[in-house]
Amino acid sequence: MADEKKQPTKEEIAKKRAEVREAALKTFKGKMLDLATAFYVESDEGYGKKDNAAVDDYLYSPAMGSDEYKNLMKASRQGGKRYTGNEYGVIQSAAKIVQESLMSLTVQDILNLMGSKVEVRKEFEKGYLADYMQPGNDDAKKFAQQAIGTYLNYLTQTKVAEALTKQAQAGRASLEDIVKKEEPKKAEAPKKK
To answer: Minimal CA–CA distance to 122: which of 143, 105, 112, 107?
Structure first.
């Protein structure tokens, strides 16, 4: 007698999808987004050298962790060009993880990640983006692709703005350090004998 695999119930499938969704949402709370942003900015010619430099200094480098690891990755750069050698593979993998994680989210999840407070219409309430990508419904597939593209554009633009803001604040702090008055030293209280 052949072993028959038990088909999962609708409840088991729903539970598993909810678990995968929760794991995917964690992707959007860590340093993975900073690494993915480096890939998106590097891949899009619309972002300039200053944007790339800010992302490198204030998102990519801090996301890489220890100074030893950062130095190792930067040493792998070919001809001193940013994101060559091993670095490119790291940021490309991060971008792939972010995109794959989006497929396990609902439309409401994506809106929430973008800071939206809009509640979605009933037809969008329960569907995961992966559901919209199924063959046979070109309109649904276009919608999913638009949702993914909109989120990735939002992510990239907000992360670049974050990096540029940090860069500007670092410049201000540097100037402040140069020109600030020194605080008068407080007199020490006499020691008791």
So the answer is: 107
pLDDT in tens, 113-164: 999 999 888 888 778 999 999 888 899 899 999 999 999 999 999 999 999 9
Let me know: does 101 contact 27? Beta carbons within 8 Å: yes
Model pTM? 0.79
Please name the residues in contact with 74: beta carbons below 8 A apart, sequence gap of 6 or more. 87
Distance, in Å, from the CA atom of 109 to the CA atom of 128, rounded to the nearest integer, reads 9
Residue 64 · residue 75 · CB < 8 Å: no
Q: Using only the alpha carbons of the chain, give its radius of gyration.
A: 24
Could you please report the per-residue DSSP string of 45-70? TTS-HHHHHHHIIIIIHHHT-SHHHH
Q: What is the DSSP string of 124-139?
A: GSS-BHHHHTSTT-HH
Torsion of CA 169, 174, 178, 182, to 10 degrees: 70
- Tell me, what amino acid is at 150? T
